[in-house]
Design brief:
By secondary structure, the chain is of the alpha/beta class. The chain has a single domain, classed as Rossmann fold. The protein is 30% helix and 26% strand. Strand 2, helix 2 and strand 3 form a beta-alpha-beta unit. The longest helix has 17 residues.
Length: 148
């Protein structure tokens, strides 16, 4: 069963929260696809991941760099899985039509934006209707706290 975690960002934006989550993914021996809304976001995340200090090594690729099958983390705007990942990270409020194709989905949303929160609630309802397992995580001063 697909496990969908909704990550309510209250202290940082996704560019700051994502590296730690990807680091845990890699430490668990998993691969990831990170899906965003635009090529500009792919470029910004590409730079942010290379500049990450914690963890300081997040090997990844994009369509521009190629070699998708060799990349532990793949950044994209498309509904694709070219690196054989089981984990999907969804940013920018994107809906995920292929939700059940993944083992885990991480839906990161900005809790400081009411429209983003309302859209996340709609995605929660859609994931629940598909029968996915759901978890809600809220960002705290010490990291993530599972709620409900």
């Amino acid at each position: 069963m697909t496990e969908v975690g909704f990550y309510h960002l209250t202290r940082t934006g996704p560019d700051q929260a994502l590296p730690a989550l990807l680091g845990r993914t890699m430490a668990a021996g998993e691969r990831a696809v990170v899906r965003v809304a635009s090529d500009a976001r792919v470029a910004a995340l590409d730079e942010a991941l290379w500049a990450s200090q914690d963890p300081d090594w997040l090997p990844h690729g994009t369509a521009r760099t190629g070699h998708a099958g060799l990349q532990p983390i793949w950044l994209t705007t498309f509904a694709e899985n070219p690196n054989g990942a089981r984990f999907l990270f969804v940013l920018d409020g994107l809906a995920c039509a292929d939700l059940l194709a993944w083992t885990r989905v991480f839906d990161l949303f900005d809790g400081r934006d009411e429209a983003a929160v309302a859209a996340a609630r709609a995605r929660w309802t859609a994931a629940k209707a598909l029968g996915a397992g759901l978890a809600y995580w809220q960002q705290t001063e010490r990291g993530w706290a599972k709620k409900g």
